[in-house]
TrEMBL record:
Superkingdom, taxonomy of origin: Bacteria
Name of this protein: CopG-like ribbon-helix-helix domain-containing protein
Stretches the record annotates as Disordered: 44-69
GO biological process: regulation of DNA-templated transcription
InterPro entries in the record: Arc_rbn_hlx_hlx, Ribbon_hlx_hlx
């Protein structure tokens, strides 16, 4: 598996707190929750390639089977 890209993210503390609670509700780290949300948005907008989408789904720590089509 290729190494993940690292970058610094500046975020409003209130938004971080909300993400932290949301991540805890879904048994994810904040980092994994942010990545999950970004991946879902990229898929929904058609900006994530098919091969990357399949790879991400396979490697996802939590695979939601309820996809809207």
């Amino acid at each position: 598996m290729p190494e993940k890209k690292k970058f610094l993210l500046r975020i409003d503390p209130a938004l971080y707190d909300a993400l932290e609670r949301w991540a805890a509700d879904e048994f994810r780290s904040v980092n994994a929750q942010i990545e999950f949300l970004l991946r879902e948005a990229a898929k929904k907008s058609g900006r994530l390639g098919r091969q990357r989408e399949e790879e991400s789904t396979r490697l996802s720590p939590r695979n939601d089977a309820t996809e809207e089509e």
